[in-house]
Amino acid sequence: MDPIKEAFLKIKKDIFYLKDEISQLKIQIKNTQTTPTHNLPQTYQQTDKQTNTQTTPTHNRTVEPLYTPNYDSSTGNKGVPTDKQTNRQTDQQSNNYTQTISNSDFKQANNMLTSLDNIKKGIRLKFKRLTPQEMLVFSTLYSLEEQNTNKITYRTLALQIKLSESSIRDYINKLINKGIPIEKIKQNNKLIILKISPDLKNIATLATICQLREL
């Protein structure tokens, strides 16, 4: 598969995964907000019993009723749920966490897409500047490498394209001067081996480069 297309597909999969994760977080937050609170009266009853037991005098006094009479004035926080503020803080933290995940991850995905788009544009511009003959020399070199041809030299290309070695040498130099990543490796201080840079081959196949050139 074309490495650029494969990178785009991977980013799309990551975005779908992030969307699914965010949806699950939203469901968890919603379930937290709708947690039933019908067990609260039992808690308050236990609290009242503990308080009354602790405040029962131990010395001889007139026996007082187990429960104190109701007064018009409210005492303490009796009867008022204490979990509202906690839930509000938890919800706010959860919402902030979800928003942080959404913003940072989607921003990173957008940066990756932009970077890939810029790389694709840079490759397209470099190869659109090539003349048909220069592109022929480049594509022949790339094709020979894909066929695992050993030691591709000026002579190898000359025989394939049916040009002189000096012409091939001139075209290779022009390609390098135009920013096309071709490596020249000298062996035995005499023989020049030609190779396409692995960095370019990892990014785009020959078919992809030809398609970009046509755009």
CATH superfamily of one domain: Winged helix-like DNA-binding domain superfamily/Winged helix DNA-binding domain
CATH class call of one domain: Mainly Alpha
State the helical fraction.
55-70%
Distance between termini? 20 Å
User: What proportion of the residues form beta strands (DSSP E)?
Assistant: 5-15%
Strand ordering within the main sheet? 1-2
Coarse structural class: mainly alpha
Question: What is the helix/strand order?
Answer: HHHHHHEEHH
Architecture per CATH nomenclature, i.e. the level-2 architecture of one domain: Orthogonal Bundle
CA radius of gyration is 38 Å
Number of helices: 8
- Enumerate the spans where pLDDT stays under 50 for 5 or more consecutive residues: 39-59
